[in-house]
Every structure is written in C-alpha cells, then in structure tokens.
Amino acid sequence: FLYDADPSDMRATSDYGIALLRMGIVSPPDTKRATLDKAHSVLEAVARRNPLDKPNAMHKAWAEIELGDLYQALGERAAAARYYERGLSTSEAVQKMDPNDSTSERGLVIAAGELATEQIRSGNVSDALATVNKAVQLGIRVESTAPRDSVRIRSVGARAWQASGSVHAALARHERDESRRRELDASRDWYQRSMSEWRTLEPLQGFTSLYKREMDSTAAELAALDAEENTP
C-alpha cells in the first residue's frame, strides 16, 4: 500500500522488495520465479537510486542468489551463473561499505562457490579458481581477526573452506589420472579444514540448527568424495 501510494519513497519501495523476496522464498513453484523476479526488480530500482543503501543491497544480493538457486534447479545453467555472478558482485559492494557485515560475507561465499561450480561446468577452470579464491581470501581475513568464541563470524571461514572443497571436487570430475588425484586431495584437505572448524564451533553458545545443517552438509560432501575416490 505504501509503495503504491508513493513510488518515489525509496524506503517504502525497498521494504516492498524485501517483503516480496521473503514471500518468493516460501512460494510454491508455480509462482516462485515471478515473485523473486519482481522482488529483484524492485530492489534493483532502489539500488540504482541509492547504491549506498546497505540493507537494500544485502537483500538484493540475497534475491540474486535465490534466483541463481532457482535457475540451477531448473537446469538453466547460464541464467544461474548470471545471477550468482550478480549476487557475488553485490555482496562485494556491501563488503566495501562494511567489511564486517556478516550477511554479505555469507552471501559472498555462497555466490562464489556456486558461480565457480557453474564456471567449471562451462569449462572455465581458471575463472572458477579465481572466483572461489574470493571466498577463500575472505575466510582467511575473517579467521585472522575473529574472536575465538564468535560462531557467527568464524562460520564464514568454515563455509569458505567447504566451498573450496566443493569446487575442487567438481574439478576432479573433469580430470583424469594424476590431475584427478591432485584435485581430490585438494578437495579433501579443504573439506577436512571446514569440518575441523565446524567441530570447534559446535560446542559454543550460538551454534544454531542452521550451522548444524551446514556442518552436516559438509560431512556428507566429504563422505561422497571418499566414495567417489574409490570409483575408477
């Protein structure tokens, strides 16, 4: 109602886009794409008017990653890569505004990992390694300054190591012989590093069910890697 009453009100417009995004996330398949597209369009319009609106930019990145996931699930790889790339770029822009913003840190890692995987599928190996390295470098930076008892901050590193493990596992599927072995070893090292960090965080206050699901996902990917290693 506020958006319709005054389309020039950027706060109301951004709030409308955020509401659409949250609605799109829980929408059934037949309306999800249209709702997420509308949310992204609204948030993007605000970003053009005020690129320094951090909450709007954070939600814009979220919408781009959700659209990437949607198109990836539909098998529309080019569209998925395009939205992951935009989500990564938007997350990087938020990081420039606020290097300690944990939401954009999470978005950057997720977008970088998914984009790198799509780049591997397209045969762009050097691009994929450069992309996932953005997540790794963020993880290194966060790890060097994060308080030992901060689950929220230190989870960024665990998530970044998992993303790198996933990318090297995908690379191994495109290699043979010694190159395949090298990528499998690299993947295992990153997954084990991620699991080590998750296990360190698990007993701490603030380790929610969301983090537990991420830790379990990493463990499952590591188990799948071990099974894949034994497959000729």
Q: Secondary structure elements and their pairing?
A:
Blueprint lengths: L1 H4 L4 H16 L3 H21 L4 H20 L3 H21 L4 H20 L3 H21 L5 H22 L4 H25 L7 H21 L3
Helix pairs in contact: 2-3, 2-4, 3-4, 4-5, 4-6, 5-6, 6-7, 6-8, 7-8, 8-9, 8-10, 9-10
Explain this structure.
- This protein is an all-alpha fold and 232 residues long.
- The chain is 82% helix and 0% strand.
- The protein is built from ten helices and no strands.
- It has helices spanning 2-5, 10-25, 29-49, 54-73, 77-97, 102-121, 125-145, 151-172, 177-201, 209-229.
- It is globular and about 65 Å long.
- The N and C termini lie far apart (60 Å).
Task: Summarize the structure in short.
With 232 residues, the chain is mostly helical. Helix content is 82%, strand content 0%.
Features:
82% helix, 232 residues, 10 helices, single chain, mainly alpha
**What is the structural class?**
mainly alpha
Provide the residue-averaged pLDDT: 95
User: SSE string, helix = H, strand = E?
Assistant: HHHHHHHHHH
Number of strands: 0
Q: Considering DSSP H and I runs of 4 or more, what fraction of the residues is helical?
A: over 70%
